[in-house]
Amino acid sequence: MKRTRISTVISVLVVAAAAGFALDAVLTTTLHPIFVPAFTLGLALLAIAAIVISLAVPVFRVARGRTHDPIDAYYATRVVLIAKASSIAGAIFGGGMGGLLVYMLSRPVPISAGSIVPTIIGVVGGVALMVAGLVAEYMCTVPPEDDTRDGGGGAQQRI
């Protein structure tokens, strides 16, 4: 399984930001109230980010040889998949909330703090989830083997 490319995450972040901005623009144009996320959304995203990192720590310890406790391969695979999904989901949430925030701040009409603060917390939570997913995915990679331990032959050893 290949690691998630940063370009993929950034492109999802940019598209989600444009979608969030467009959502509020369309709502305002059609004389509807703008979208304001719940305060708990950002807090939930921060909690999920902490959980993703905590799930990857045992895999990191085994992969780096810091512990000799066995770890289930299915558990490690699930953690990697959760990490990949978290990085993309964090980019979607962080970008979408960022687009909403940019729209709110670009309006000539002052927006109340009750609308801006939950949006800022949503941006922080989404970006934290994105970073936590990328870090957890890195923590689950196995470092390359040192070829000098086997006599320098590597895969091309002759018998």
Structural category: mainly alpha
- The residue ranges in which pLDDT falls below 50 over 5 or more consecutive positions are 152-159
Q: What is the total tally of β strands? A: 0
Helix percent band: 55-70%
Distance N to C terminus: 31 Å
Tell me the series of helices and strands, N- to C-terminal: HHHH
| Major sheet description | none
Compute the number of helices: 4
Shape descriptor reads elongated
Task: From the alpha carbons, calculate the radius of gyration and give it in angstroms.
Answer: 21 Å
- Tell me the β content: under 5%
Mean pLDDT: 88
Write up this protein:
The longest helix is centred in the middle third of the chain and has 34 residues, at 73-106. It is elongated and about 60 Å long. α2 (39-63) packs parallel to α4 (113-139). Helix content is 69%, strand content 0%. The protein has helices at 6-29, 39-63, 73-106, 113-139. The chain has 4 helices and no strands. With 159 residues, it is mainly α.
